[in-house]
Amino acid sequence: MILRMPLLALALGLATPAIAQPAPPPGGSATRDPLGDATVSRKAAESQAVARFDALDTDKDGVLSPAELAAAAPARPGAGVRSGGRGNRAGGWMARMLDANGDGRITRDEFVAGMLRRFDRMDANHDGQLTSAERQAARDEMRARMEERIRERMSGGGADGGD
Question: Do 1 and 82 meet the contact criterion of CB atoms below 8 Å apart?
């Protein structure tokens, strides 16, 4: 049980690149490869973020509510039991990450800005192009941070963990 939240955070971190991408175009994905070997430009990442926002904004009101974020997050086995019936809390995690003004709703501008901040962090040489090597390095760094947090919590040296 104690490892469930850090492992969930690790899984969400690894899944975030996929979450931030729009669905493949009709007829297959042979024309674009956002997470394969192709390099992704910052402009393409911005377009993908806009498309993803539009897909998540199911009521088309121009903002993502906590419910829309929670519905978009991958389901977690046993979420309702451990979280006291609150269900999947990943929507809250994403809201905290993207909600610049803290109002509990994510505007298109906040969403796109958050995705571009993430792109910029991963773009190690800051050339506006995200290569598969840069994406892998970012995943490896995140994995190392999560493993360190798990070790700290298991040894009693870390924070008490709330999400």
Answer: yes
